[in-house]
Amino acid sequence: MARGLGKGLDAFFPEIEEKESDNIEEVELKKCRPNPYQPRKVFEADAIEELKESIIQHGILQPLIVRKSIRGYEIVVGERRFRAAKEANLEVIPVVVKDLTDEQMMELALLENIQREDLSPIEEATAYDRLINELGTTQDELAKRLGKSRSHIANLVRLLSLPEDIIAQISHGELSMGHGRALLGLKDKQKIKPVAKRITTEKLNVRQVEALINELNNQPVKQKKKKEIKDVFIVERENHLKDFFGTNVKINKGKRKGKIEIEFFSDDDLNRILDKMD
To answer: Does pLDDT of 277 surpass 90?
Structure first.
């Protein structure tokens, strides 16, 4: 079953929805070209072939939406139909001509892209992120216009804050969206990659990962020992003794007492040091 993203392009642009008053024209296929702002570069050959066979049998049932340009027509909606029509060797195709700006063309290209049937969580998240950042749309507006919950959009966009190699794993289906959301809950972000490796190696499901992360988050945090800054006078004396004995010397000074440690590596070395002390 096809997976859509909600209400469709007319939720953003009701002016592109076909109306009875729209005039359907037939234009030469060779005068049409793809949307210059189309972010989608790869179209599945099997899907195009299936659509081609349908066009040969029944023709193009829904006209493409285009806008007039200097060199003919630019496709706004219907690039799959356009490609299938080329494969079917059609000379003319039915279109509805709309008057749209470059900005609207870019918006429509992004929206059509997020309505792909085989969209991965990362592709969907990236499309939402671009709509929010490039077009100034809020998550609330997206949720209302696309018929999605705000939390769905927010959770997807948050996946983009994961490390790049983790994002790639989600894109390739090695990790699920649920795995990605669980990884975002790790307090120590340095543990994200090791946990992701355990997920793939041990084939952990989302519930197991959530339990693991809960356990990791509740582990006591090890306090790093502060590096002691030695007194300049002590460091100077250490260096003087190192030069004198020809070996490593440490001076450890406490509140009430201290000690001097002199390293030696053999009995002969010890005797050499003792001779110097005499």
So the answer is: no
